[in-house]
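[INFO] parsing input record for DNA-3-methyladenine glycosylase 1
[DEBUG] input buffer:
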Amino acid sequence: MDKPGLTTDATGRTHCAWRAAAAQYPRYHDHEWGVPVADDIQLYEKICLEGFQAGMAWITILRKREQFRVAFEGFDFRRVAQYGEADIERLMNDPGIVRNRAKIVSTINNARRACELVDETGSLARWIWAFEPSDEERPAVVDMAYWTGNPTSPASLQLSKALKKRGWSFVGPTTMYALMQAMGMVNDHLEGCACRAHIEDLRRQFKRP
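[DEBUG] output buffer:
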């Protein structure tokens, strides 16, 4: 019998159960979710897509991700920062993305804030990774009840507050915890998942920016 939150496939490998929920999930779960990221553009993309997810299922965003990348020019935040009303209308008429005006405007706003932050500090990645929780703050084993409950953490609360203070939007503490999971700042593959040890190895080898 599978443990709560885990499932075993036909090959006998055990993974987080959500991996089996959609055809796009195995690759994302196995090769991307939790892998440490230090590239500014990739991090800006993750922040924006987690913001677009608010109130929606992640699979909806994942299915549309390639078109999001086309629509927002690869999430090059210096390009997106130049967008104006005509671009908002273009994006609102793009059926390949989530056509939510507030989230589109937020993506443009956050691009401008990213430019400011990079100009001030030199690196979006270095600034964000400064919020990584210490070993004492991270649980040794992920609690399934916590993992499924739209979690936040002291670190995600701090990151959310710091970004909001700088004028970012759609960066609430739950959204920022999802970012931390996705970018490898925490390893929330459940104990027993075949990917958990690999992600821990990647985190140990990762050179923080």
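[INFO] The longest strand covers residues 6-8.
[INFO] shutting down worker
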